[in-house]
Amino acid sequence: MVLDGIEIKVDKKRIKNIYIRIKPPAGDVVISAPLHMRDEDIYIFAESKLAWIKNHRRKYEGAVSRRLVSGEKLYLWGNPYTLVIKEGRSRAETAGENIIIYVPQGSSFEQRQAALNEFYRRELLQKISELAPLWEQATGLFADEWRVRDMQTRWGSCSSAGNLNYNWKLVLMPERVMDYVVIHELAHRKEMNHSARFYAVVAQQMPDYKVWQSWLKEHGREY
Question: Residue 26 above 80 pLDDT?
Fold first, then answer.
């Protein structure tokens, strides 16, 4: 479907309600609709959301053309930082309101991205190592193992064996989002579903969890 020059992917599923997402990094628009819903009604729904779509796609403008050069804006735990490129052994660190990437002279985009990715991964691992034990003790629910992964469609996952996986992009989000995702995945150790009982476990530790659940939906993915 194309609406006012914007390509919209329509995905029909076994769901009750229709909803819309704007997916990073390029601001792709996806509508999920019930299997029985007519195409004409989906189009009418998309038209009613056109202003919303345009407004939310603006935040992704320029994301695809990022070059990782000094002056660009990066995020860490929901806070904006200014990127500074310096010559040195490949690594990245924060300094005040800057994220500094050190790379050899004449470095490629791939080298700068690799240094930044390693920095982000390290930051997320450190945060999880701090939060996971705290929430395990609070909930009485424990993971056998947790890992950081490049996940395309989820912020986290929990296997039946008790292995928890976290999307590395969580390092870009506000810290309270990280709390929610950790609690969410630990709750799956008791309820391997998204039932009312499951969300009761989440709410016991985070009464305002819907605020952060909505935040994640608003920023591109349903969680």
Answer: no
